[in-house]
Amino acid sequence: MKKIFLMLFVLALSLPIFAQSVKFGAKAGLNESTADVGKTSSDISNLSGLNAGAFAEFEFGKISLQPGLYFTQKGFNSKTSIIVPTPQGGPSGSFNASGRVRLNYLQLPVNILYNIAIKPGKIFFGGGPYYGYALSGNVKGNTISIYPGQGNFTDSQNNNIVFGGDNGYKRSDFGVNALAGIQLKNGLLFSINYEYGLTNIYKSANANTIKNRVLGFSTGFQFL
């Protein structure tokens, strides 16, 4: 994966010499992200975030190469509800937890696109690898333990992520990206993309894994 990405990146640097045209643009939008966390007793759900950045497009007829640089937010929400024994005997209690993990990345995708001309402009679709570097992150959660006849116990956390170490989140994220959209003749464009993370971004002694999954919606403008 890393070798493929580096090859495409080096190729992108040399393309202005051979491309029929080079154009630039910018776009921004919303992400609906989640994660593949393997086997878990928790319910994992989507977390909304933002994406924004700029791109270059090297055109070779109907084929184009589009590297970009974006700020993008990923993460997920989780909920856990389990029945637990009461410490001093008696009826069983319950443990309920809700949490949110948000990760802020600087991301470099390199997409190969196929372009189809239509009357209003063009339709494009394709994909390629991406590399993301985590700039920051935050974990927020609340837990409530209820024991009949003994009361309720609550706890909460709101911590910034410290990357690295033997247990915790990694900064690097590699994956593949699929992209499709429409661009009008005036340069206005609308796109949808899906990111499938291949890297386990969480290092854990108990072999837990977390891989990013992101559905993004963007609008932008390409300078003609």
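Second entry:
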Amino acid sequence: MQSKLLLTFVIIYMNTLFKHINQGEVYRRSDLEYYTTAIDRQLAQLIKGGKLVKLNQGLYYAPMQSKFGVVPPDDHLLVERFLKDEDFLLISPNAFNTLGLGLTQLYNTMWVYNHKRKGEFILNGKSFDFKLKNSFPQKITREYLLVDLLNNFESLAEDKKNIVDKLTRNVLSFNMDALMKATQQYGNGTAKRIIKLIVRKVLQHA
């Protein structure tokens, strides 16, 4: 009798918890413990049943299926749940290759500019490098991307002289007002120095 009663309560709690889990969502353990008094046991059961995937300590994904298989969690949502904060900027160093400056290196990581955490974390098998920044824009523009490239100039495995030469020839393809503003607002010493030298040189020959 007692075992049947216990099983009934387990089923009720599992149903209550499962009703609050939506495919494609990322959850923290603390998000789900409101719906059950046996959170760890039920999380283990949901993982075993394929209803949840453990991404990191205390972080879970409710997998969404497509005709091609399991859809991975959205990077932005994943980082938001991990940080417990919406104030961050996701940027891939591979995006520098789109600036037309001859960059070719590929990087197997995402950078997360934020105000709370620092260090490299593996989330769902992907590398996220969390970097503390005083300020960053809400979205990435081409001009900001150039400034960020120059902010990270010394650490990139690229031919730096070639980049500066190509930027000198192509700087006027950028919105100059937006570039000046992004440089002043987000540029470090290296970025400001390079942009000033290039702009002065280009304007003298304009």
